[in-house]
Amino acid sequence: MTETTGYSGGGFVHVKNPHLDSMEEDILYHLDLGTKTHNLPAMFGDIKFVCVGGSPNRMRAFAQFMQRELGLAGAGEELPDICAGSDRYAMYRAGPVLSISHGMGIPSISIMLHELIKLLHHAKCRDVTIIRIGTSGGLVWQQVTGVTSSGLASVSLCPGIEAGSVVITDTAVDSSFQPRFEQVVLGDVVVRSTELDKDLAEELLACSREIADFPTLIGHTMCTYDFYEGQGRLDGALCSFSSEKKLEYLRRAYDAGVRNIEMESTAFAALCGLCGLKAAVVCVALLDRLQGDQIRASHEVLWEYQQRPQRLIAAFIRQRLGLGPAGRSQH
C-alpha cells in the first residue's frame, strides 16, 4: 500500500487518525503534555516555526540563539525545558519558534513527530514551517584512483562537498536511493512518499547566499537505519564487506544524486507531508565519507560546523518575520 503526500488547505496541521476524535483525553506521554493537563492552544497556538534536531543541548542552544536573533526579552537567560517532566526529549520556545530534540534514528524521531504533530493540531496552529537541522556525512565528487591499506580512498579531488558544507535536502531517499519511507503496519509494508517542499528548499538556498563564509547546496539526502554497516562504514563492531565494495556503493549513491547521509530524513519527510506540514531538512556535513569513516575534527571545529545550519535557519526566520539581516552571532 502506498500513501502519498498532500498538503491541506487552511494552513492547519491535520492528523490522519479518526480514533483521536473519540478520545476523552490525548496524553502526549513522551513530551509530558496532554489535552486535559495543559492549555495547548494558549501555550503553542501562535507557533509558526518548529525546528528539530538530535541533541537536547544543541536545541537548547538554538533556542537561546533565536532569543538573541529575534531581540526577545530575556535573551541570554536560561530557557525552561517545556518537557522537563520527561527524560526522552527536550523542548524550548523562543517567541514563534519551537526548538525540540528528537534523538538519533528513525524510531526516536518518529515517536517525537507523532506527538509533536498532535500537539500542533490540538493547539490549532496554522501555517507552520518545520525544519530538521542536524549533522551528516557528506559525499564529495571525486575521481577515485585507488584504495590504501587502511581502506581510505586515494583520490583526485574535484569540485564538490567539503567538510562544513551545508546540504538542503530536495528529496530524502532510502538506502536503495528510492524516495520512499517503508513502515510495517499490522504486518503489511506501507510505502509513504518522502517529498519535501521544493519552494521552501529554494527559499532556504536563497537565504544562504547572504552567508558567505560556508558553502550551501541542494541535493538528495540518504537516510539509513544504522550509523555503521548501514552507511558503509568499515569501523563498526561488525563489517561484512570490503573497502572496495564500500567505495563502489558510495559512488552509486553519489551518481543517484545523494550528497549527504543521515538517519532521520525519510521518516521526517513522510510524517510531515502526510499531515500538511511544509518541511525542510538542513544538515551540515561533518566529513567526506569517501575520505574516511571516523570524525576526527576538533570539538571546536565541530561546534562551529553545527552552528552553520542554525545560522541559515535564523536568517530564514528573520526574513519570514520581516526583520533585517542580523550580524554574525556566535553561540
UniProtKB/TrEMBL annotation:
Residues 48-139, 156-318 form the Nucleoside phosphorylase domain. Keywords: Glycosyltransferase, Transferase. Substrate binds at Q231, R233. CDD domains: UP_hUPP-like. Phosphate binds at R88, R132, I133, G134, T135. GO terms for molecular function: uridine phosphorylase activity. InterPro entries: Nucleoside_phosphorylase_CS, Nucleoside_phosphorylase_d, Nucleoside_phosphorylase_sf, Uridine_phosphorylase_euk. It comes from Pipra filicauda. This is Uridine phosphorylase 2 isoform X3. The keyword Glycosyltransferase applies. GO terms for cellular component: cytosol. PANTHER family: URIDINE PHOSPHORYLASE, URIDINE PHOSPHORYLASE 2. One of its GO terms (biological process) is uridine catabolic process. Belongs to the PNP/UDP phosphorylase family. The keyword Transferase applies.
